[in-house]
Amino acid sequence: MTDLIILRDFLVLCETKSFSRTAERRHVSVSGLSRRIQGLEEWAGTALFERRKGALVLTEAGLSLQTVAEQALSSFDRFRRSVVDDLNDQRRRIRFCSPHIMATILFPKWLPRIQEQFPQAKFSIESDTLPECLAALNQGETDFVTALFDCEHLIARRLGVVSDSYASIELDTEYLIPVSAPNAAGQPLFNLHVADGSPLSFLNYSQECHLEWSLSAMLAQQGLNLQQHHDAGLADSLRHMTLSKLGVAWLPCSLVREDLSAKQLVRAGSTAFDVPLNITLLRRTAPLTAEAKRLWDGLLEMKDVRAFSEVV
Questions:
Q1: CATH number given to 2-90
Q2: Model's pTM, two decimal places?
């Protein structure tokens, strides 16, 4: 970047009007500075300074170059700062990709806590279906995937998670619980314990939603008389359908806790129908960025980490 150094020499000389003071500020000898300015004048094809009664004065060409040099160096400096800022941002950023439900049941309470422990970190959260999140993880587009994994590891197997390529930390436990809108007496409109021969209207997750995979396994064992009328890809959409008295749905307890407290929803069945799920942080065993590794190592100090090789 010799040319930029010479331009900076030139601008300081424009300011000081003194070779000796400029040489001192630029940490160069006077003869070395003189050679640089002569080289710049040879490149410009004309004199940039002239002496008038012992004073150094910019020529017209010198004034024009001063304007151009100031603009050019300002642009270069802005470019360099932006690159440095981008690199610092990348080093500090921790990227998560998660199914939409995690934005409701995990991140609102979890992110503030880890922000306290990692105040310099920046967090990015993308939402998608779990297969798409896993694809992003495999392609290096995200550092972590957070999702609800069943205790029987059906979801992990269905996704084809390779045992020696992933590690996980179980952050918490969640439950899918059967809920219904209440009748006038406060009892569930759709009661799993009342068998009158007619099927109950069942609000299910769409098949691309990973919650459906765990739920269907439980329902296959229970032998309930359910008839699916509606489905949705998002748990919150099923919640609104349930509030609208369209049927019974299995929703994350954290999602409907306030609805249960307000009696807008009630349990449609006992805990025997609950589906336990682990809120899981998943990563590749490939190297992480420094900040993401700090988070992972910090969580390992608080939780037992289990590689998928132990459970799949």
A1: 1.10.10.10
A2: 0.68
